[in-house]
Amino acid sequence: MGSAPDSSSASRKARVAEMRRAERARDRRNRTIAIVAGAAVVVALVGAGAWAISRESGDSGAEAQGGSKSAGHFTTGEDGVKTWSAKLTQNHVAKTVDYPMTPPVGGDHNQVWMNCNGDVYTKAIANENAVHSLEHGAVWVTYNSKASEADVKALAEKVKATPYTLMSPVEDQKDLIMLSAWGKQRTVTGASDPNLDKFLETYVQGEQTPEPGAACTGGLSQ
Q1: Is residue 221 domain-resident?
Q2: How many domains, in total, are found in the chain?
Q3: Which residues lie in Polar residues bias regions (predicted)?
Q4: Nearest to 171 by CA among 105, 120, 222, 102
Q5: Domain limits at 91?
Q6: Per the domain annotation, does 209 fall within a domain?
Q7: What's the 3-state SS for 90-111?
Q8: Among residues 151, 153, 184, 194, which is most buried (max CB within 10 A)?
Q9: 194 near 184, Cβ under 8 Å?
Q10: Which three-class secondary structure state does DSSP give residue 213?
Q11: Does 91 fall in a domain?
């Protein structure tokens, strides 16, 4: 009569032992899965980190070079307007940019534009800020010390009366008076040159503008 309880107890103990073995097996499987998953995450993070570092290094290198020294050249049209042949980059950078032309007609630039609502600057301005103004559709009128005082005064009056323009001296430009828009440039002989008005009419907020309608106020001023 004592064999039935003993048999039942043994059976129960066996089931408990089996359940414990199964639980330990599940624990081992879960730990293995967790380890494998953790390793995969680490590998993914390391790979992503390496990619980010590589990309940052590449971007830094491009920024150190100014980000705008790309292959390109001017081609001159029948109207005397020169057009830059390569696509001009539009990245915001905090460093000085080595532009391939003077004055620059586009490329990477400072995140702050020069005010260009008919603003006349009597001192040189930073290329990087002026280029941002060109991106907004402004025309930049520049002159060197060989330009006559009368022309400089007349140009200033023209600029003051024309929204989306700015004017400043650029001493190292090759011609006395030059007009620049995004990707476009030409030389004029003086304030009375009819090509001045033609350039303004065509390129102030013209089709070449990367960001038409963007602000020409609220930026940087001397």
Answers
A1: no
A2: 2
A3: 1-11
A4: 102
A5: 74-203
A6: no
A7: CCECCCCCCCCCCCCCCCCECC
A8: 184
A9: no
A10: coil
A11: yes
